[in-house]
Amino acid sequence: MTSSVHPSSSSLLTREGDEKYANVNWEELGFALIPTDYMYVAKCKQGESFSEGKIVPYGDISISPCAAIFNHGQGIFEGLKAYRTEDERITLFRPDQNGLRMQNGADRLCMTPPSVEQFVEAVKQTVLANKKWVPPPGKGTLYVRPLLIGSGPMLGIASAPEYTFLVYVSPVAEYHKVSSGPLNLEVNDKYRRSHAGGTGGVKSCINYCPIVKPVLEAKSAGFSDILFLDAATGRNIEEISTCNIFIVKGNIVSTPPISGTILPGITRKSIIELARDISYQVQERDVSVDELLEAEEVFCTGTATVVKAVETVTFHEKRVKYKTGEEALSTKLYTMLTNIQMGVVEDKKGWVVEIDGCHD
Ligand code: COI
């Protein structure tokens, strides 16, 4: 994982004039912005429908200093990926689910969202316009970041008079890089991410800034990431800074329920289905820290993270080690999921959406 803009975007440039691919050193991809050629922008007045958006050159946008997003954080974002398959198709994974999640978030934050159809169309257009930035198979994916912001001015606390829906993309590797090995998590008992009735269950921009400090503290103590506990009791696990968590014991896979305080992950939902397909019993229920410490295996899921094994969890002075590697369920589920996403196996679930017109 790296910071916002790739430290040396220009050093990623390799050779000029290759039309199939942008000049990127694909071996060095991390999870940091590499600006691409185009983005999608659409606007609408509060309560009206979004105009047909436009693909425009990627770059800064101009909005009022009094915009609701700047002043009280009225914004939600999504994250999904475009994949280049071995047979040169460009595909998306369940983009309608992201469109629906944006609608739920918009409802919670009193924003006007694009329709699911417009959302998916905007994602397709943006990926197609930036097709040469989709990494070669096996080297990474094109991360797609749809953003809905209150762009109209609002001095008091109310919903903005105007909304901007934009989509930009960046080639990325997995968030917690495969080469960096399994995760060593700290259970965080000092900060809380979310509370009942708040916005923890939607992908609101305001959920993310407050987790930067706890994550930095955990990193400086040598951990790779942190796991938050529930605000009500401090006894149950909720989610990692940017992904959902699962524990495995015997044939039972358990994960915290979608009850408004954790993000309803699309990878989470897909992994639940895949685990059931191979005869695991999956329980969506409160999972206590005690159970976490007694689990055989722990892993996390997310669009940026994909499926990642957890090697150790530390809670107060106690450190527990879990099963990882070839024998771990997370390895099997990772392979099942990415084989569908990369077109290695037939998609029997209708999850993969091919973007038309991609063949050279
Ligand atoms: C994603 O997995 O798409 C996320 O949104 C996490 C992100 C904040 C890196």
TrEMBL record:
Keywords, in A-Z order: Amino-acid biosynthesis, Aminotransferase, Branched-chain amino acid biosynthesis, Pyridoxal phosphate, Transferase
Name this protein carries in UniProt: Branched-chain-amino-acid aminotransferase
Gene3D superfamilies in alphabetical order: 3.30.470.10, D-amino Acid Aminotransferase, subunit A, domain 2
E.C. number(s) listed in UniProt: 2.6.1.42
Domain of life: Eukaryota
Family: Belongs to the class-IV pyridoxal-phosphate-dependent aminotransferase family.
SUPFAM superfamilies reported in the protein's UniProt record: D-aminoacid aminotransferase-like PLP-dependent enzymes (SSF56752)
Record's GO cellular component terms: cytoplasm
Alphabetized GO MF terms: branched-chain-amino-acid transaminase activity
Protein species of origin: Microthlaspi erraticum
NAD among keywords: no
CDD domains: BCAT_beta_family
Modified residues (N6-(pyridoxal phosphate)lysine): 203
InterPro entries documented for this protein: Aminotrans_IV, Aminotrans_IV_CS, Aminotransferase-like, B_amino_transII, BCAT-like_C, BCAT-like_N, BCAT_family
